[in-house]
Amino acid sequence: MQIDTLPAGDPVHRDQKCIVVPFAGKRRVLSTCQLNGGYQEGLTAVFNNDVDPGDGTKCRLLAPSYEEHLALTAEMLGLDRHTAAGMSTAASMDNAAIRTERFGSTAVTAVVTAGIEVNGGRVGDPASWDEAAEQEASVKAGTINIMLFISTDMSPGGLARAMVTCTEAKAAALQELLVSSRYSMGIATGSGTDSTIVVCNAESPICLNNAGKHCKLGELIGKAVKAAVKEALYLQTGLSPEKQHHILRRTDRLGITEESLWEDFLKQNQERSIRREDFAEQMYKIGQRDELVAAVSLYVHLLDQLLWGMLSLQEAYGMGQKILEMMMPERKNAGSGEPSKERETEEDAGAAGIREKEQVLTMMIQQLKRRLNGFISIK
């Protein structure tokens, strides 16, 4: 089924759990694809393939190797395996986002599928796969696949710059949504399985060489990719500013989750407690309170800047204490998880002697957890 037509005349089809773009003319392509990747001038089509079987089981490939799977997929789509570039994902093609931006005679279209919440990572996070040692890769589902189409011709170097700008735009979209890395305390910049295809129109009379942030083409790429990535994430998993407006969405990358708060709550309230479902209901409501979301966001960003070396231990800890004071529960429960003045005083006194960043981070995270649990009411 044809779902769109690109400015250069290429049709966009959704077929057999794939999005396929057969070229209407000569194109230059730069991609990260395992099948016919790199810089190519002789391709006739590109595609994005959904490998999720849809029954809750693990994603399935058609062949032992990923490259052969893509080659077989190309043939199933009626394409020549030698002149098609493809990529795969567990995201549904029904949730693809298509955004076009124009300026003068130049148009840019981003076709994106996206899922990030279980596999988001920040560049430089610890990795587990050593390809040189011929280990078998074991990665979680969650991928942002981008097909970027430029209506003008571009030099090979210009195509490479377009891919850089495209990648920056993806990272910016994730930063603006405060997407958590699942492998560190950082904000995700992508996933470990993302793929990108950049296509330009080799038949256009206009040939551009630059796609950086100072030129209009770079602006168009940034706008189209950011918008399409955000829309695709929303369509696939509901990820949006509204969904992120909860304290636990801001703190899960620190290890502060509903489950970890519940475990701490039980330790601090051994004689009196509430049912697990009542705790969850209270935490859900508490976590949406505007003033708490704002305060927790400030606190978490303090920890970010401490990790980045932008604030000293004393600066981060001192301001963190002021933010925690702003978050005092409206009413206190004895034994409710609200930290005692004695305990806080001891921690304040000991902070001056702490010199290890990891110690300060751990202590500040524990203080935030206790503060959040202080809002839980025990009947």
From TrEMBL:
<protein>
    <submittedName>
        <fullName>Adenosylcobinamide amidohydrolase</fullName>
    </submittedName>
</protein>
<dbReference type="InterPro" id="IPR052209">
    <property type="entry name" value="CbiZ"/>
</dbReference>
<feature type="compositionally biased region" description="Basic and acidic residues">
    <location>
        <begin position="331"/>
        <end position="344"/>
    </location>
</feature>
<feature type="region of interest" description="Disordered">
    <location>
        <begin position="331"/>
        <end position="352"/>
    </location>
</feature>
<dbReference type="InterPro" id="IPR002808">
    <property type="entry name" value="AdoCbi_amidolase"/>
</dbReference>
<dbReference type="Pfam" id="PF01955">
    <property type="entry name" value="CbiZ"/>
</dbReference>
